[in-house]
Design goal:
The protein is built from eleven helices and 18 strands. The longest helix has 18 residues. 29% of the residues lie in helices and 24% in strands. Strands 1, 12, 13, 14, 15, 16, 17 and 18 form an eight-stranded mixed sheet that branches. The chain has an eight-stranded parallel β-barrel with strand order 2-3-4-5-6-8-10-11, surrounded by five helices. Strands 7-9 form a two-stranded antiparallel sheet. It has 380 residues and is an alpha/beta fold. The protein folds into two domains: 138 residues, Lyase, Ornithine Decarboxylase, Chain A, domain 1; 164 residues, TIM Barrel. Strand 2, helix 3 and strand 3 form a beta-alpha-beta unit. Bound molecules: pyridoxal-5'-phosphate. Pyridoxal-5'-phosphate binds next to helix 10. Its cofactor is pyridoxal 5'-phosphate.
């Protein structure tokens, strides 16, 4: 039994399931390996993947900065990690957000209209222009570029921004930003990087943020993104004097979290076996949004059983026909729950209680609370 499973059982005995259990040492080791593989390339963490303060504190020791996509995320990072370097991106920045963004390390400009509003404020800022290149994007799970989307600008939009920036000094053009797709392997991302770098060089800028989107496999959790090949590839593409930066979210934190719960009921309906567990997709919406089976941590094998939550909707399914033996009262753990899980879920649908949040690892000595302290500074 590993430390996370041990914690899940401890929580079960205390009546504290469902819970998210985070492995802080595992996260620290993973982030350190990514950092090492990237060499000279700067590493930012995309906070929207999981803003849990304990995770941010661990990541702060490995990353060069944090990418935020809202005023809320900016205030959160400033509270949890005062002084951390931040880049502010995201479509639809309000004037209040733009003004706050101007005070960060980099503003990722999403449109000429947004840049006009920033210039009209008369504040100083360092900007990257977010470009959506018309390049083929095959095999992505989500595409933010490679055609008409609301993310960033086409090259004509970028040209318009470059003209707007000419002849003034307050807002400085630092380079380009591109986050074109998510769910790509190292080879595909390197292909995109090559296109983005060629574009940036044409524009005459030397700072290039290549975005996130590194693939993870929910079907095969052991199939990790090849950070070493990616780092080596970027080192080859990079020219002297250029600053390259990446901003992954999912591939950094997804592995460090589990959603642990217990079986309430097991039943057979028209021959098919179902296990109903406490909680469900209102805590971990990931399997519903991505249409996958959330991987179950191995336990005694048995007849295939479909694991569902407590919601009154057929969409509340966590995993279909998993070959494990389950009985009421058993603890079930779902892996790969460290990113886009609790924080993207519809917590209050049906008004069930929120899960507990528990942290395994030397980073905290093991703590537990009933909310992920989203509004609290925990410090470390
Ligand atoms: C969501 C997002 C990321 C992180 O994407 P992952 O797929 O979680 O790595 C990075 N940059 C931008 C601009 C994003 O919107």
């Amino acid at each position: 039994m590993d430390a996370m499973t041990a914690r899940a059982h401890e929580l079960a005995r205390g009546g504290r399931l469902p819970a998210f259990v985070y492995d802080l040492d595992g996260l620290a080791a993973h982030a350190a390996a990514v950092r090492l593989a990237l060499g000279e390339v700067e590493l930012y963490y995309a906070v929207k993947a999981n803003p849990d303060p304990e995770l941010l504190a661990v990541l702060a020791r490995q990353v060069d900065g944090f990418e935020v996509s809202s005023g809320g995320e900016l205030a959160h990072v400033a509270r949890v990690l005062p002084g951390a370097r931040v880049a502010f991106g995201g479509p639809g920045k309000t004037d209040v957000e733009l003004r706050a963004a101007a005070g960060t390390h980099r503003v990722h400009v999403e449109s000429p209209g947004e840049l006009r509003r920033l210039l009209a404020m008369g504040v100083a800022a360092d900007v990257l222009l977010r470009v959506n290149l018309d390049v083929p994007i095959a095999g992505a799970s989500l595409a933010m570029g490679g055609g008409a989307t609301p993310f960033g600008m086409d090259p004509a939009g970028v040209d318009e921004c470059v003209s707007l920036l000419a002849g003034q000094e307050g807002v400085r053009l630092r380079g380009v930003h591109a986050h074109l797709a998510s769910g790509l392997d190292a080879d595909d991302l390197l292909g995109l990087a090559e296109a983005v770098l060629a574009y940036a060089r044409g524009l005459g800028v030397t700072e290039i943020n290549l975005g996130g989107g590194m693939a993870v496999s929910y079907a095969d959790p052991a199939d990790l993104f090849d950070w070493v090949a990616y780092g080596e590839g970027l080192a080859k593409l990079r020219r002297r004097g250029e600053t390259l930066r990446v901003e992954p979210g999912r591939a950094l934190t997804v592995y460090c979290g589990r959603y642990a719960t217990r079986v309430i009921d097991v039943k057979r309906v028209y021959g098919e076996l179902f296990a109903v567990v406490a909680g469900g997709t209102h805590h971990i919406r990931t399997p519903a949004t991505k249409g996958h089976d959330q991987p179950v941590v191995p336990s005694a094998s048995g007849e295939p059983v479909t694991i569902v939550g407590q919601l009154c909707t057929p969409k509340d399914q966590l995993a279909a026909r998993v070959p494990i033996a389950l009985a009421p009262g058993d603890v079930v753990e779902f892996a790969m729950a460290g990113a886009y899980a609790w924080n993207i879920s519809h917590h209050d649908f049906l008004m069930h209680p929120h899960p507990a949040f528990s942290y395994v690892g030397s980073s905290t000595g093991g703590s537990c609370r009933s909310e992920p302290a989203s509004g609290l500074a925990t410090g470390t």
